[in-house]
Design goal:
With 154 residues, the protein is α+β, with helices and mostly antiparallel strands. It has two domains: 59 residues; 76 residues, Glutaredoxin (3-Layer(aba) Sandwich), CATH 3.40.30. It is built from seven helices and five strands, in the order ααααβααββββα. Strands 2-3-1-4-5 form a five-stranded mixed β-sheet, with no helix packed on it. A hairpin with a 2-residue loop joins β4 and β5. α1 packs antiparallel against α2 and α3 crosses α4. The structure holds FE2/S2 (inorganic) cluster (FES). FE2/S2 (inorganic) cluster (FES) binds next to α5. FE2/S2 (inorganic) cluster binds next to α5.
């Protein structure tokens, strides 16, 4: 269940729009922030807070790749493997993450530190390969650079 503070935050968003459906995406984002991922229960909380049907909430949440539908590690790596990144070594980086950290696509390290999702273009083709860690952006990636970056994410 959402606490009073979160319900107030969602209500403040809801009143900004003439249609409560418009508050759905930011409310789902809040739910993911609060629960770490969008479980059935989390989506039910959003539906209740906005007085929307659960099917509308579930249908919207399942459309967007930024919403997680299973638990993820403390830090989520979203590595682009689309054309520009692939040409410049993204698949080699996926192998590196597997070999060095035991991290497979759609997987989480045993200690719950890192999760990995491979994704489509994140708009940094000119400085590929690129990735996000949580909401932080990194480009011009190499094995060495990833190793250095990951030192910041314990
Ligand atoms: S293809 Fe990777 S950022 Fe565009």
């Amino acid at each position: 269940m959402f606490g009073e503070t979160v319900l107030k935050e969602i209500d403040e968003i809801r009143v900004k729009y003439p249609d409560r459906r418009s508050a759905l995406l930011p409310s789902l984002y809040i739910a993911q922030r609060e629960f770490g991922w969008l479980s059935q229960e989390a989506m039910q909380c959003v539906a209740k807070a906005l007085n929307l049907s659960e099917s509308i909430v579930r249908g919207t949440a399942s459309f967007y790749s930024m919403f997680k539908h299973k638990p993820v590690g403390r830090h989520l790596i979203q590595l682009c493997t689309n054309v520009s990144c692939m040409i410049l070594g993204a698949e080699r980086l996926v192998d590196f993450l597997g070999n060095k950290y035991g991290l497979q696509p759609d997987g989480t390290t045993e200690d719950g530190r890192l999760s990995l999702v491979v994704m489509e273009c994140i708009g940094a083709c000119g400085t590929a390969p690129a990735m996000l860690i949580n909401t932080d952006f990194y480009d011009n990636l190499s094995e060495k650079r990833i190793e250095e970056i990951l030192e910041k994410y314990k």
